Amino acid sequence: MSRRLEMKRLSILGSTGSIGKSALSLVDLYPDRFRLVALAARKNVELLYQQSLKYHPQLVALWDEAAAHHLRQRLPDAQVLSGVEGVIEAAIHPDADTVVAGITGAAGLIPTYRALLEEKDVALANKETLVMAGELIMPIVESKRVNLVPVDSEHCALHQCLRGVQKQEVHRLVLTASGGPFFAKSKRQLESVTVEEALNHPTWQMGPKITVDSATLMNKGLEVIEAHHLFGVRPNQISIVIHPQSTIHSMVEFIDGTVLAQMSITDMRSAILYALSYPHRWNSNLPRLDLLSLSVLEFHAPDTNKFPCIRLAYQSLENGRTYPAALNAANEVAVHHFLNRTLPFSSIPEVIEEVLNRHSPSPVKDVETVMEADRQARQIAQEAVKSLAAR
Questions:
Q1: What is the pTM of this model?
Q2: With left for phi above 0 and alpha for psi between -120 and 50, is residue 326 left, alpha or beta?
Q3: Rg for the chain (alpha carbons), in Å?
């Protein structure tokens, strides 16, 4: 177990995104519990500049080189780094003891990996880290005796339900899904949905990529892979149910038939606070769940014919090796093209399946192997997008 600290010294990766901004709002709520050491973002110069003026971090980093150049001009007395190496420096800053890994996508893997090697506790919002390289990450967590606490509401819920539980007592994990904006649409209707419709999530406010993943239910498929690594259960011990109200964030069914569910408001600050305060719980002024308002709690089985991304994720997990990394890369490319209106929504799983069919897997022996699989999968995905566009 990691050491207990009076004040947690934070490095926030992805500080200008939804997770990062929520984490900073908690810094505001608990000024006596947190000290900001480093901030890192992709390219949002203006917001990172404002955050730097407010929190006075020792180091700021921007992935985008041109954006970092502009920020240096505006913060001439600050340490401003750039590129992946700059973000890594933010992740491993010697004065930071806890890293909020909020960078979206495969870009978050290496900084998170390096933070764990440097024995930092990690509040993990970047599910791709475990999807791509869970076989590398979890042994580091164990050997370094650090805390890796998930920020995803579903995995945060499971983490809470499993505290003090023996693995042999668990029958299955149940991940809940809102169903996204298209749960009630037919497969034919999905062929013509727009970007605006896909980004109109019914219960959560998130970044565009993860919102589209929620609409395709790929988000749930990625979470299955993440849960497998985080909690050490077999793929056939992880189920998905559609729960439109998003009140129950996940459940654990035990071997005696008992089901333990975690419920809370639909506010990511709740999960982030749990991760940052772990292994303790802090008094919170966040809104409370109003049980009397819960007139209906619905549960439905996911339709994998209408939402094939779930099937592809389970398939990748069963196949193992670098298949999950290829799955993630293909999905990132496909979602990018959908958001740029160069690929129909219904073609996202087609691109992913094409990549998986053409993938040449390797054992996950190091980060370089994973990143090479990611690179190759992205190349195949781009070819698949062009092929679909030419039809």
A1: 0.93
A2: alpha
A3: 20
Domain 320-391 coded CATH 1.20.140.10: no
Architecture of domain 8-146 in CATH? 3-Layer(aba) Sandwich (3.40)
The answer to whether 159 and 150 have CB atoms below 8 angstroms apart is yes
Are the beta carbons of 118 and 92 closer than 8 angstroms? Answer: yes
Residue 202: which of 178, 219, 177 has the closest Cα? 178
- With the CA atoms of 175, 272, 62 and 5 taken in that order, what torsion angle do they form, in degrees rounded to the nearest 10? -130
- Pick from 229, 254, 240: which is nearest to 164 by CA? 254
Q: What is the pLDDT of residue 204?
A: 67
Average pLDDT over residues 27-32: 96
Number of residues written out for the chain: 391
The pLDDT score that the predictor gives to residue 202 is 74
Give SS3 for 61.
Answer: strand
Are 8-146 and 320-391 the same fold in CATH? no
Burial 77-97 (b: 16+ CB within 10 A, else e): ebebbbeeebbbbbbbbeebb
Q: Supply angle C-alpha 39, 42, 47, rounded to 5.
A: 60
Strand partners of residue 259:
253
* 366: Cβ contacts below 8 Å, ≥ 6 apart: 136
Q: State yes or no: pLDDT of 2 exceeds 70.
A: no
Where do the domains of the chain lie?
Answer: 8-146, 156-265+290-310, 320-391
